[in-house]
Design brief:
Helix content is 74%, strand content 1%. It is mostly helical and 310 residues long. It folds into 2 domains: 47 residues, no CATH class; 231 residues, MetI-like (MetI-like fold). It has a two-stranded antiparallel ribbon with strand order 1-2. Strand 1 and strand 2 form a beta hairpin. Helix 8 packs across helix 10, helix 9 runs antiparallel to helix 10 and helix 12 runs antiparallel to helix 13. The longest helix is centred in the first third of the chain and has 37 residues. It is globular and about 75 Å long. The termini are far apart.
């Protein structure tokens, strides 16, 4: 019988295989921890909400009665769900289009090497740093009927003769929410697109200019194709953000007047906590998740086709 000497043990400890295992240990620990956290806080809650949507359960109850898809039928038969879906589609589409358009324009303006662009950058990023509640309260003051800044400004320049109840008018309330939420999304779009613009090699732009390309040609044939992936990413995130918008709706209009500004995220809150129907509220949450996923996939497909055309 042979025994391993100290030199052999030392050689085995510092062998390439042992060193490889030691170097891989932090990788497995960090990734394993991340996987556990993702499962605990992202994946499992989704399945739990889907499970709750099949139960007849009230707030505070631990056990409910299985009802299958009855909650989904109840929600779809609600007279408010159609208006809520339309409001969600209008709110998400308009806020995303407005935020991406304005954000892209500002990003291209900042990349044009204008003076004081860093001051402009600081001013643009400021809305993103403002908390959601503060943002909502500021816009509530701006749109206020009695002493709002918007009414005072429009009347001062002669656009309106009397003050208008922006948040109490069913026609204008949803558009006020869209504008206020877009203002919050614009900085996010600017940062992503501006970073993509700064990553474009100057050699490509100079080559285009040497070949006789005008400023419009450089923009259309060089800059836009190269920043299209960044625009896609920014748009997809804006779609996700806008589909789950809640704070602004709750603080400004509470879904009113009537159902004029009720969106799916707010409808989920009302169904679950004000009406006390956890099952139906969970069903609305599942429907919101499916709608968000569907909108993201559709836009992703359209964006992929657009990139191929570029």
């Amino acid at each position: 019988m042979t025994t391993m000497g100290a030199d052999d043990a030392s050689a085995e400890a510092f062998s390439p295989r042992s060193l490889s295992r030691l170097s891989a240990a932090p990788f497995f620990v960090l990734n394993g921890t991340a996987l556990i956290l993702i499962l605990a806080f992202s994946v499992l809650p989704v399945f739990y909400v889907a499970y709750l949507s099949t139960l007849d359960i009230k707030p505070g109850e631990l056990v409910g009665h299985f009802v299958g898809f009855s909650n989904y039928s109840f929600v779809m038969e609600s007279p408010s769900i159609g208006v809520t879906f339309r409001n969600t589609l209008l709110f998400s589409t308009c806020s995303v289009v407005l935020a991406v358009t304005i954000g892209a324009a500002i990003a291209f303006l900042m990349d044009s090497k204008i003076r004081f662009r860093f001051v402009l950058m600081a001013a643009v990023v400021l809305p993103w740093a403002v908390p959601e509640v503060v943002n909502a309260l500021v816009w509530k003051w701006i749109f206020d009927y009695h002493w709002g800044a918007l009414n005072a400004f429009l009347k001062a320049i002669g656009v309106i003769s009397t003050y208008h109840p922006w948040l109490s008018d069913a026609t204008t309330a949803i558009y006020c929410l869209i504008f206020a939420y877009s203002w919050k999304l614009v900085p996010f779009v600017v940062v992503i697109i501006y970073a993509a613009l700064r990553a474009i090699p100057e050699e490509l732009v100079e080559s285009g200019q040497v070949d006789g390309a005008t400023a419009a040609g450089v923009l259309w044939h060089i800059r836009l194709p190269l920043v299209t992936p960044a625009v896609v990413v920014a748009t997809i995130f804006c779609v996700i953000f806008s589909m789950r918008a809640f704070d602004l709706v709750y603080l400004l209009t509470k879904g009113g007047p009537g159902d004029a500004t009720s969106v799916l995220s707010y409808y989920t809150y009302v169904t679950t906590f004000e009406f006390g129907d956890v099952g139906a509220g969970s069903a609305v949450s599942v429907m919101l998740a499916v709608a968000t996923l569907a909108a993201t996939v559709v836009y992703w497909r359209l964006s992929a086709r657009l990139e191929q055309e570029w």
